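Page 47, continued from p. 46.
Same chain as before, 366 aa.
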Amino acid sequence: MAEESTGVVQREIAAPVKAGSTRSRRRMILPIIGLAVLLAGGGAVYWRVAHPPAVATTVAVYGTIDIRQVSLSFNDSDRIAQLLVQEGDRVQRGQLLATLDRTRLKANADKAAADGEAAQKTLTRLLDGSRPEEIAEARAALAAAVATEANARINFARYSKLSPTGAETRQNRDNAEQAMKVAIANRQAAEQALALAVEGPRWEDIAVARAQLASAQAAQAYADQQLKDAELHAPADGFIEDRILEPGDMVTPQTPVFTLDLTEPVYARAYLPERQLGAVRPGMRAVIETDAYPGEKFPAWVGFIATTAEFTPKTVETTEIRTELVYRMHVYACNPDGRLRLGAPVSVEIPLADNPPVARGEKPCG
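Result:
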């Protein structure tokens, strides 16, 4: 019994001693952990200071080459006489591409030209006034009328004296009086005719002739324009993409004959992430790369940035496959040889340092 009591006493004394040692170890570990955390934080701060994050020097965007197309059609209705180009042909501004049957249009233009010439001659005749021969003829007619009147007056005076004496009848006297009145009227008419010949045409007649000439000239210009519209010319440099109709087809101004791909402008339709919007401005120089010509950089410049944000289209190829707000942009390219083709995927790099915007209308094609 004495031994058991001694063991219990020893265990009771040892228990407090063990608990005290555990608390001592905890008090020693906590400062060590705190020191380790402090050292780790300081190391991280030192690393950030010694190795700052790299500052972006370029903005990279991705997109596809786009061009502008024109649907070419005649400005008149008739049958196609000839087509002078094929798909893929390169054409220059003003080049003749096709013609219509001009038989009807040529006849209409000739008639309008004749009408215009007739109206011009009429106006010229009125502006020139009476010819000297016409004035001389009017003077001669007046002289004849004066002489006739003088003779009628003499006859009337004679018959007036003889009629009361019975030497002439009353009827002959009356006939002589009427002949005198007719002669006076003819003389007055001849005087007015001479005055008109000397005065020339009325200003109202000249005004009417001017209006008729203007109308004829307008009709002639319209007919000439219709004749010109029978030819289809290239409005700009480019390539024939599609030849839609053939000779003999009937066309109207609403019927396209060719599709023309313009050589300028050529641009990359790309999308600028919202976080990079403040770094890129219209006019900044850029370079375009395409898989078709590896290692070659095409000079370019930023021409347009949309004012409205949109979600990333599925067709955009980016290094980060995620949906974010972007702004559509056009990066215009120098493409003298036509190597950048419609729909080709491209990469666009826009330097941020020392890249002032180019002046409007300037093309940095070097």
